[in-house]
Amino acid sequence: MSAEAANPGATSRRRGRTRLDLRRIGRVALLGPTSRDRLPDAIGHVADAHRAHHPDADLSILHRAYVLAESSHRGQMRKSGEPYITHPLAVTLILAELGAETTTLTAALLHDTVEDTDVTLDQVRSEFGEEVCFLVDGVTKLEKVDYGAAAEPETFRKMLVATGNDVRVMSIKLADRLHNMRTLTVMRPEKQARIARVTRDVLIPLAERLGVQALKTELEDLVFAILHPEEYERTRALIAADAGTGDPLNVIAEEVRRVLRDAGLSAEVLVRQRHFVSVHRVRLKRGELRGTDFGRLLVLVAEDADCYGVLGELHTCFTPVVSEFKDFIAAPKFNLYQSLHTAVVSPDGEVAEILIRTHQMHKVAEAGVVALGNPYAPTDDAETADDGVRADPTRPGWLSRLLEWQQSTPDPDTFWTSLRADLAEDREITVFRPGGGTLGLPAGASCVDAAYAQYGEAAHRCIGARVNGRLATLSTVLSDGDTVQPLLALDIGSGPLPEWLDHARTPAARIAITGWLSAHPQTEVPAPAGATGRPPGPRPQESADGRAPGVGTLVRRIAGNAVVDLPDATVRLAGCCTPVPPDAVTGFAVRGGAVTVHREECPAVGRMRARGREPVSVRWLNTGGCRVTLVAESFGRPRLLADLTEAIATAGAAVVSATVEPPSEQRVRHTYTLRLPDAAQLPALMRAMRAVPGVYDVSRAQRPATA
C-alpha cells in the first residue's frame, strides 16, 4: 500500500499539491536558475509560503542558496527518478509552511550540499554566515546516522547532542524525514518497514517533544500505513464511510458560533478532522465510533483571557463533561503546548471535544519550536554560557534535560536504553515545587524522579519527600498537580540504594543512580529515609509572650547564666526557641515580674515588637557549658536510637534525659535534654544528628524532655 495515501482530506490534498509542485520543480530545476534579478520559478512557492508568515523577509539569501544548491546537485537524481534538487526544495517548503525563519530555510536548501556535493562548510560560512554554517554542519552530522541496530546508541547520541545545541537542526531533520517518508514507496518493503520503525520509535517522539504536531501527525499516518496496513485500511474505510453522512460537528460548531456571538466574544470556530492514527486510537478506546469522534472543534481567540471567557460560555450554555477538562494554558505542556481542553454535550446528546486557544498558541501548537524563529537573534536576549555554548531561550525543558543525561552517561547503550524508555512515554504530568516553579515528569514518575529532576546528583542524599505537605515514601507515584518537596540529608557521603531503580522512571534518575552504584560497588548504604511515613502534625502556634496553648512552653527555672537589666526580675528561657549561649538574645517582661528570654530570630520577638512591647536587654554571664533540649524527627529503622546516641556522644554532649514517642507510620520523634561543655558546640552537634541516616530534621525543643 502506498505510504503517500496515508492522510485523507486536507492532508492528502496538501501532499497531492506538493507532488504536483515537485514534478513542476523537477522540470524547472533541469533548466537551471533564472536571471539574477528575480527569484527562480522553482522556489516561487517556497517564497510565497515564507512571505505568508514573514511579510518583510529578505528573499535574496534564499535566491543565492537555491542557486548554489541547484548547481551543486545538478545531474544527481533521486530513486524516484526526479532531480535531486526536488528534495531540498520539498524540505524547505515544509518548513516554510510551518513558519520557519529565513536562516532555517536557507540551511534547509543547503542541508545536503556538504554531504553529497563538492560544497564545503567553509564555502557555506563565507557565503551565508556562521548561523547557516552551524545548521548545515549539524544536519550533515545527522545525515551520517546509520539506522542499523548496532550503530543506533552512539549515532543517536550524536544526533541528539546536535539537536540540543540548536533545535533548528532537528527541525530540518524532521522535515527531511517527512519528505523521505512521503516518497518511501520506491524502497524495498523490508527497508520501508525498517525506516518506518525507526521513525516510530525515535523521530515521532522527538517531534512530539519539540511540539511540531503538524509533522508528527503526518509521520504517524505514514508509519501506520506501512507497519499496520490492515488496521490502516479499516480506519480509512471508516473515515470514508463517515464522509458520506451528515457531520454533527458542523451543527454543533454553528451553535457554538451563535453562543459566542450572543456573548459578544470574537472567536473563530473550526472543525478539525482527526488524522488516521487519532481515529484509530479513539476506536480502540471506545469500541464503536460516534459521529463526533472523527474530529474536534477548535476555537481561536485573540487573548489568553478570552480563552477562559469562551470556556465559561460553553460550560454555561452546554452540559460540560467535567472529566475531559484540562488547562494547558495555566500549566503548559513540556513541549510548549498551550490550550484549554473540554468536551460538551449538545442538546441532541452529541458529545463534542473542543480545543480553545489563541492564534499564537495555535501557531506554536502546530509548529512547536519551528514557530519560535531564530532563538539566537539579538531581540531574543540570547545569552552565551560561561563554557561558550549558546543558551537557547526557546529550548523545551525536556531537551535541556536530554543534554544533561548524555553528558553524565559515558556508556552509549545505557543512554540509549534510558532514552528509548523516555520516548516511549506518551503522557507527561506537571508537579509543583513549594518555592514556586514546576517540574515536567512522565506519567508514573515517583518522588525519586522528582528529586533528581530538581537537584541532580545532590538527590543521592534524598531521605524522603513531602507530597502535598505530607511525608511520603520515595516510591510514591506522583499525580498531575501534586506539590512535591524532596528532603535531603546533610551527609554528603550518602548515596542511593539499588532498589531506587525500581521506582525511577526518568532517564535522569536512572542514569544518575546507575552511575553512583557503579562507582561504589562495595559501599553499603544504610536504609534511607525514603521509607514511608507521615509528617508530624502542626505544632501549636505561640502566643505573643511565648506561650503555646495547652503546652506551657516556658521553662520554669531561674537562668543564673542570663542577666537582665531589671532588678529582682526572675529570668526564664523561652521554650519556643530554647536560647543558649552564645545566642543573640533579648527579653520581654511578662506578668509576675518575670522576664522571658528569646533568641533574636525567634518569631515571637517580631510579633511582640510589632505590638509595641519594649524589649529588655539580656546578656550571658559566660558562654561555657549549657543545657539544651533538642528534637530529632526521623523515619523508623533498626539501630536508629543507637546511632543517634553515638552521634551525640561523639560530639561531646551528655544525655540528661531522653524520650522516644511511639512510631506513627514509621515516623519517630526523639526528644533529648543534653548538657554541652561549651555552648559553641551546639551547631556542630545538630549537624551531626542530622547526618544520621533516617533523620530528616533536628530542632530546638518547645519543652524539656522528661526522663
Would you kindly provide a written description of the structure presented here, covering whatever features stand out?
With 707 residues, this protein is an alpha+beta fold. It has five domains: 3-227, Hypothetical protein af1432, CATH 1.10.3210; 243-368, Beta Polymerase, domain 2 (2-Layer Sandwich); 397-519, Ubiquitin-like (UB roll), CATH 3.10.20.30; 562-620, no CATH class; 626-700, ACT domain (Alpha-Beta Plaits), CATH 3.30.70.260. The protein is 42% helix and 16% strand. The chain is built from 24 helices and 23 strands. Strands 1, 2, 3, 4, 5 and 6 form a six-stranded mixed beta sheet that branches. Strand 16 and strand 17 form a beta hairpin. Helix 5 packs across helix 8, helix 10 runs antiparallel to helix 11 and helix 19 runs antiparallel to helix 21. It is elongated and about 105 Å long.
Can you give me a brief rundown of this structure?
It holds the Pfam family ACT_4. With 707 residues, the chain is α+β, with helices and mostly antiparallel strands.
